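SUBJECT: A protein chain and its fold
Encoding: whole-number codes for local backbone shapes
RECORD BEGINS BELOW THIS LINE
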Amino acid sequence: MPAMADCAAEPPLADSYHALLRLGVDGDVVVGQREEACAKVTTTPCDEGLTTAQPVAECELPMIDVGCLTGAGGKQVNAEEERAACAAAIAAAAAEWGFFQVVNHGVGQELLEAMRREQARLFRLPFEAKAKAGLLNDSYRWGTPTATSLRQLSWSEAFHVPLAGISGKGCNYGELTTLRDVTREVADAMSTLAGTLARVLAESLLGHPAGERFPEGCDDATCFLRLNRYPPCPFFPDDAFGLVPHTDSDFLTVLCQDHVGGLQLMKGSCWVAVKPIPGALIVNIGDLFQAWSNNRYRSVEHRVMTNATTERYSVAYFLCPSYDSPIGTCSDPSPYRAFTFGEYRRRVQEDVKKTGKKTGLRNFLV
């Protein structure tokens, strides 16, 4: 595994940590009370979305062979029966877990390994180059600019790139000449997989094919690829967020994580850790699919925990519509009023700015 980035490459996450520590947890801890601040964070119940010092059980998500959908599983003897069984398994996992894993997904293992190597090269660039050189359409992000307490700080950095920008003429890759082709190929393969799974999930509720354009308004201009890195965290790593608890504000997310682990999701009323499985991709339902499905599919809260000594990489594809796309419903009546993706995003951003956390779909209940 590649070595960790040197100090010049690291974003100033420690500065953010110390600044928020000085502010105190929820505004009532003064400088020097670090142990008390940590205790306040780590003893809060998990259902409030804060860190917890309690042991977290490890789980294996439902594993589904989707080769009959992607053509990556070889010739099927009973193709229609296998497709129906596969679709039923996907819909069941989306309803019970909101998460599932897929194999024979059509995204080549060699390609994913090449993406991992390119990510390592990208994130080892000096911080100044990542932050100010306009790389990948100036899409570099780190930490949580809006954080007002430690519980809102994400110990991570990322490039969040619209698919159209990956191969756009104005997209700057610097000296990373091989990054463009690998990133484009990963984006194309994940996009194909996400579209296939979304249509299968829709068909399971509609009772008939959803059409090649489902979800409406999703294309290269609206969907994103996010290249993530979670640096080692020296500050209480077992209780620090690499990515704060959240749900995804899209239709569907496809995730490739490495072997380090750290992804956790809410199951019942407690957090469970997702065991990394070599060769498998993770798929999760987003808020828009939960709304479209009238809550039959679940957009589940999840988070990433940090590691004290080892960096973690992942690649996530987000299936998003255009801002003016109405989300619609699989059947009437819907528990939600009509809204567009743009309305949803604006309301999420307003809530985070005002309260520090996302309210999400509850804002759009009838």
In short: The domain at 57-364 is CATH 2.60.120.330 (Jelly Rolls).
